[in-house]
Amino acid sequence: QVQLVESGGGLVQAGGSLRLSCAASRSIFSINAMGWYRQAPGKQRELVAAMTSGGSTNYLSSVKGRFTISRDNAKNTVSLQMNSLKPEDTAVYYCWASHRGDYWGQGTQVTVSS
Predict the structure, then answer these.
(1) Which residue, 13, 21, 7, is CA-closest to 83?
(2) What's the gap between Cα 71 and its chain centre?
(3) How distant, in Å, are the alpha carbons of 35, 39, 60, 77, 105 from that of 5?
(4) Sign of the C-alpha dihedral computed for residues 48, 52, 53 and 55 taken in this order
(5) Contact 35, 78 (CB under 8 A)
(6) In this structure, what are the phi and psi dihedrals at residue 45, rounded to the nearest 5 degrees?
């Protein structure tokens, strides 16, 4: 079992930055993969960024070059640095962990105004 708690969402103007953090309830050292999904109103949940335990990363094409995922095994956290935000990045962002099953945080709202 892994419990995930997100923080760092909010309202920002287009072009601004936000940093999301996800704290896990246990050591993430052996967790296969962790990352961030998002879901905008009326749309399906989509993978934004993910990182494996080995450090490999995967990004949604529309966020490449703007978002950076990082993982701190010592602090049991995963973070998402979001720069050059656009209104289309507005969504609820969910922390995700894959370890003998999928685990989700409660979500944090990110709103980008134009």
Answers:
(1) 13
(2) 11
(3) 13, 17, 22, 9, 5
(4) negative
(5) yes
(6) -70, 135
The CA-based angle 29-33-37, given to 5 degrees, is 130
Mean pLDDT score of the chain: 96
Average the pLDDT over 61-83 and give the result.
97
Tell me: pLDDT of 49 over 90: yes
**Tokens coding 38:** 């998002």
Distance of CA 73 to the CA centre of its chain: 16
**How far apart, in whole angstroms, are the C-alpha atoms of residue 101 and residue 29?**
16
CA dihedral 50→20→68→112, nearest 10 degrees, is: 110
CA distance linking residue 85 with residue 68, whole number of Å: 12
**Cα–Cα distance between 104 and 6 in angstroms, integer?**
10
Residues 6+ apart with CB under 8 A from 65: none
Two structure tokens written together for 77: 């956290």
